[in-house]
Amino acid sequence: MSMLERDRRRVWHPYSPPQAGPLFEVVAAEGVRLSLADGRELIDGMSSWWAAIHGYRHPVIEKAVAEQLERMPHAMFGGLTHEPAVRLCERLVEWAPGNFERVFLSDSGSVAVEVAIKIALQYWMARGEFGRQKLLTVRGGYHGDTFATMAVCDPVNGMHELFGANLKSHLFAERPACRFEEPFEERHIEDFARTLRSHRREVAAVILEPVVQGAGGMWFYSPVYLRRVRELCDEMGVPLILDEIATGFGRTGEMFGSNHAEVSADILCLGKALTGGTLTLAATLVSDEICGVIAEGEPGALMHGPTFMGNPLACAAAGASLDLLETTPWRNAVKSIEAQLRVELEPCRTLPGVADVRTLGAIGVVELAEPVDMAKVQPAFVERGVWLRPFGRLVYAMPPYVISPADLSALTGAIRSVLAEVHCA
Description:
- This protein is α/β, with parallel strands linked by helices.
- It has 2 domains: 3-54 and 330-423, Aspartate Aminotransferase, domain 1; 61-327, Type I PLP-dependent aspartate aminotransferase-like (Major domain) (Aspartate Aminotransferase, domain 2, 3-Layer(aba) Sandwich), CATH 3.40.640.
- It has 13 helices and 16 strands.
- Strands 4-12-11-10-7-5-6 form a 7-stranded mixed beta sheet, sandwiched between helices. A 4-stranded mixed beta sheet has the order 1-2-3-15. Strands 13-14-16 form a 3-stranded antiparallel beta sheet.
- α7 (190-198) runs parallel beside α8 (223-236) and α12 packs antiparallel against α13 (405-423).
- The longest helix is centred in the last third of the chain and has 19 residues, at 405-423.
- It starts with a helix and ends with a helix.
- The model has no long low-confidence stretch (mean pLDDT 95).
């Protein structure tokens, strides 16, 4: 029995029916390439869901993980601590924009957001304001697949509509209508401001993806909008949670998406590229004011504790990834990727069925009028030697920062040809 047949019998893949398809067996990965069992090589345009920003098997990260493996692969974080975790938390506080005091480590982006929501709720309970149980966000967002995070994803057009009756009800304002490069007008934030002001006594926190809405629609909005959100949160005395899981560590051209707006959060969520795509790790950073209130309230402790919290291997990988961001010209690389994506994806705008083309940092998006047929489109990309994973009406590329211009042209060329010859045919 082949490996793919065994997979179809026993494995359940993400966002798939029990028996997924089409599937492609990958046996190795290095640089920006995935090697398939049948001998083909694919240029990875996804960075393994946006995480492998330095490419695969980077020697700096592998060396750090190997050295840590020889010392200690894991130790529980309850009552114990270790250098890789402490040093990582110190660096994240130093790097992140804002006045953060503490870092809570977890093992996935969804959990990092769950922790952020818990912290916001517990903050108000510690202050004796038990009526603040709702979060305010905007439509078009995505914050994870667990139940608390699903509840702050878009309730109508998101991927979790099926569970609507089981989710807590939160507050949703209109999606930011102002594109990243367009002038901001005050009318763009009127609905958000009105919602926040009218529910200010119910709102525990505002949660947003800064500048880029990711899996909810790959929408890039004006940094001025985010700046106004920060101002309104300050005016209303409401904490701001920024979900930088997709936008952190350079993907938008700045180290953090919020850097475009020159704002900071009260609670910040990080993940995906934190370890350079090597091991799973996420982090929730918390301001000194919020930490102080929770410490003085009841029970005085954050009631959360993942088993593999602070995993030393993951922390070592994250430290090495941060080293690379300190020592390599990633900003220039992302700037070049952005310029090339902008030029080479623009011809897609003339194809039938294409609704929009947009680029920001190392993100290139072609939005279609109708959803793609994955059974046809996915194999077509593989046949052209690239790995891209469209979803819904979006065909997009988020390549590693180390991709060469030639390999990036192969990605954009595949997008143009598949849309013209397969999707639009």
